[in-house]
């Protein structure tokens, strides 16, 4: 009985805190952004999947909903944010880890419009989603690049897919750029190198303050050329703890590190929320404070594009460090550890504190016990 009561209380606390969570870290002398929140972007923790809720002035947009077993969690989260309806649902592409939970969302909430890209996918999961769209009479919209849709004080524009003949479904992902005032988010679904390259070559403005890395941080996405064009101040990676794919991959983390982009992972921080008044940017986490309970402000970060490419950038070993991590194994060591002596310079990453190493997803060495 005590265990059941504890679980119920835990769920109640999660729902009550879903839209009011603790801030992360500081990047500005300002204490808070100056106005009221005009846009909240909720990167909902759905394990090894994707679900992103956009909230502005009482209007809501849902992008994906994770696997089928996460449908109820996504519905509960949306309702905890004060919504009983969705203006738009975007199904980025028909893989189950993105759309499996949508049937329950469509059934339990009042949904107006459904946006997706036409494919020949015919799995039971995808066909059930399309059946729900028809049964509950949602307005079906075929994603068209360049189309812009508004909700509250914000808007999103479709940037991809730019082709109709990809070898896999990931590149059919509907990519959106969400804007509110001077702050923007690039939400990429599972778009991979082919789609990223097309967006870069199309010459559109891809710059954004926050990038949700494609395909759960896989090395098949977040290429250096795309990352350079987006030039984000922060990144979010949606992935499951100890997932069988090894996401996020070392190559993606390396690119983010080389560009100096702080990143937050749902497998470490749970649900991550970004809020903005159109100029400032505040991050928060379901699991509480990260890096000294401070604030991120978007308008103070540098807009200069990085000049170093991954294959020419020098590893960060020029200064003394309290801890040294291995980019391949994601283990961190004391500088005196024998594991450091055998580590290639290319694979080394330095940390000034133990907390910094752990927050970056690294685990302590079992030999030197840092």
Task: Give your account of this protein's structure.
The strands form 3 sheets. The protein has a 9-stranded mixed beta sheet with strand order 1-16-15-2-3-4-5-6-7, with helices on one face. The protein has a 7-stranded mixed beta sheet with strand order 8-9-10-11-12-13-14. Strands 19-17-18-20 form a 4-stranded mixed beta sheet. With 370 residues, it is of the alpha/beta class. Residues 1-18, 20-32 and 289-320 have low confidence and may be disordered. The radius of gyration is 20 Å and the shape is globular. A hairpin with a 4-residue loop joins strand 17 and strand 18. It has helices at 2-17, 71-80, 96-99, 102-108, 124-135, 193-202, 224-230, 250-259, 266-269, 338-341, 354-359; strands at 22-23, 39-43, 52-56, 59-63, 85-90, 110-116, 139-142, 148-151, 154-160, 175-180, 183-187, 210-212, 234-237, 263-265, 272-276, 281-285, 323-326, 331-333, 348-351, 363-364.
Number of helices: 11
The count of strands amounts to 20
Shape: globular
Mean pLDDT: 82
Biggest sheet record = 9 strands, mixed
Strand pairing plus helix content: what structural class?
Answer: alpha/beta
Query: What is the terminal-to-terminal distance?
Result: 40 Å
Rg from C-alpha positions? 20 Å
Poorly predicted tracts of residues: 1-18, 20-32, 289-320
- Beta-strand residue percentage: 15-25%
């Amino acid at each position: 009985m005590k265990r059941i009561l504890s679980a119920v209380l835990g769920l109640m606390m999660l729902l009550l805190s879903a839209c009011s969570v603790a801030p992360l870290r500081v990047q500005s002398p300002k204490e808070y952004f100056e106005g009221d929140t005009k846009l909240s972007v909720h990167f909902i923790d759905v394990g090894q999947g994707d679900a992103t809720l956009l909230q502005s002035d009482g209007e809501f947009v849902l992008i994906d909903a994770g696997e089928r077993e996460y449908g109820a969690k996504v519905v509960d989260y949306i309702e905890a944010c004060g919504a009983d309806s969705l203006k738009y649902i975007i199904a980025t592409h028909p893989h189950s880890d993105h759309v499996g939970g949508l049937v329950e969302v469509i059934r339990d909430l009042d949904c107006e419009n459904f946006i997706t890209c036409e494919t020949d996918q015919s799995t039971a999961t995808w066909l059930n989603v399309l059946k729900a769209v028809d049964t509950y009479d949602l307005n079906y919209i075929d994603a068209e690049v360049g189309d812009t849709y508004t909700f509250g004080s914000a808007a999103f524009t479709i940037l991809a897919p730019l082709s109709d003949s990809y070898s896999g479904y990931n590149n059919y992902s509907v990519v959106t750029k969400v804007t509110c005032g001077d702050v923007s988010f690039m939400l990429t679904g599972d778009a991979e190198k082919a789609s990223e390259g097309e967006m870069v070559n199309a010459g559109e403005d891809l710059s954004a303050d926050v990038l949700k890395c494609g395909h759960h941080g896989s090395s098949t996405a977040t290429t250096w050329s795309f990352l350079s064009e987006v030039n984000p101040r922060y990144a979010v990676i949606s992935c499951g703890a100890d997932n069988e794919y090894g996401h996020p991959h070392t190559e993606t983390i390396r690119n983010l590190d080389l560009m100096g982009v702080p990143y937050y992972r749902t497998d470490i921080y749970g649900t991550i929320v970004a809020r903005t008044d159109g100029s400032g940017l505040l991050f928060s986490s379901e699991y509480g404070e990260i890096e000294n309970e401070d604030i991120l402000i978007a308008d103070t970060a540098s807009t200069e594009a990085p000049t170093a490419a991954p294959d020419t950038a020098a590893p960060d070993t020029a200064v003394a460090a309290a801890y040294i991590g291995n980019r391949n194994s994601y283990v961190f060591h004391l500088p005196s550890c024998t594991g450091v002596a055998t580590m290639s310079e290319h694979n080394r990453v330095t940390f000034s504190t133990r907390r910094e190493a752990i927050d970056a997803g690294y685990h302590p060495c079992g030999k030197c016990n840092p």
